[in-house]
Design brief:
The protein is an alpha+beta fold and 260 residues long. It is 48% helix and 18% strand. α1 (2-32) packs across α3 (53-65) and α6 (154-161) packs across α8 (183-196). The protein is globular.
Length: 260
């Protein structure tokens, strides 16, 4: 009897292992659905990988929790998330898209002499997914993975300014919105940003720091990220930020062409 139980327990372990591997394979199949598509609905994904919608929904929830996909609450469609950017940033090939993006950021850094950061929106926060630091002795240190609120900072304002109206209102109505940031003034700033094509900030989030940021749009015209130049406010003056906005917008435009 003991030998029988042992064999049965081993058998259960093998089945559990097979089930885990099968779930991983299905999750990867879901990600591969986005090879030629920017956005997909639940039914579309289920149809492509021939799985029941309830199974696909559970797998998408797990992928969303880890940041590999993002669900648009308005359209109920999914797109690739910021974790894909973070992984692609570590690819070794010199001709991969992430390396090309990094090359563009380094080129911009060499033009303006300041730190360059790439941000994406994750809910009511922004997250830095890539950075190239200035070579100057006094510079902005930009750790990858840092999360910041959407109420302050040039990149935050860009990410909100170019979001759809419903998303903007959802962000502005967040109970966690800081009381010291006037919503009406913020809305006025968003309108100005859309006219100029870029945003600036001086000591909004951190004393002694300034930044100028521009949107990165994908091929469908949707904002996917914000590209920012940041540095000490005594060096990165409003005059300098206006001057730097031209190469910043141009680099952001080129980077947008690399986004599917």
């Amino acid at each position: 009897m003991k030998h029988y139980l042992k064999r049965k327990e081993v058998g259960v372990g093998v089945e559990e292992h097979k089930s885990t591997v099968r779930s991983v394979e299905r999750a990867l199949d879901i990600l591969l659905c986005f090879t030629n598509s920017t956005e997909l609905g639940l039914s579309e994904i289920a149809s492509r990988i021939s799985l029941h919608k309830s199974t696909v929904y559970r797998l998408l929830a797990a992928l969303e929790a880890k940041g590999f996909v993002i669900r648009d609450p308005h359209t109920e469609k999914y797109r690739l998330g910021f974790s894909i950017w973070e992984l692609s940033a570590n690819l070794a090939q010199s001709d991969d898209p992430a390396a090309i993006v990094l090359t563009e950021m380094e080129r911009l850094r060499d033009i303006v002499g300041e730190t360059i950061s790439l941000y994406v929106r994750d809910g009511n926060e922004r997250i830095r997914i890539q950075a190239v630091e200035s070579k100057q002795a006094i510079r902005r240190v930009a750790p990858i993975g840092a999360r910041m609120p959407l109420a302050v900072g040039a990149s935050s304002k860009v990410l909100v300014a170019y979001s759809d109206p419903a998303t903007q209102e959802q962000i502005l109505s967040d109970p966690a919105w800081p009381e010291y940031v006037d919503r009406d003034v913020f809305r006025q700033q968003l309108a100005q940003i859309r006219q100029l094509g870029y945003a600036t900030s001086v000591e909004e989030r951190e004393i002694g720091a300034a930044a100028v940021a521009a949107p990165i749009f994908d091929r469908t015209g949707r904002i996917t990220a914000s590209l920012a130049i940041s540095g000490p406010s005594n060096r990165l003056t409003l005059e300098k930020m206006t001057e730097f906005s031209t190469p910043l917008i141009e680099v952001a435009r080129r980077m947008g062409k690399m986004v599917k």
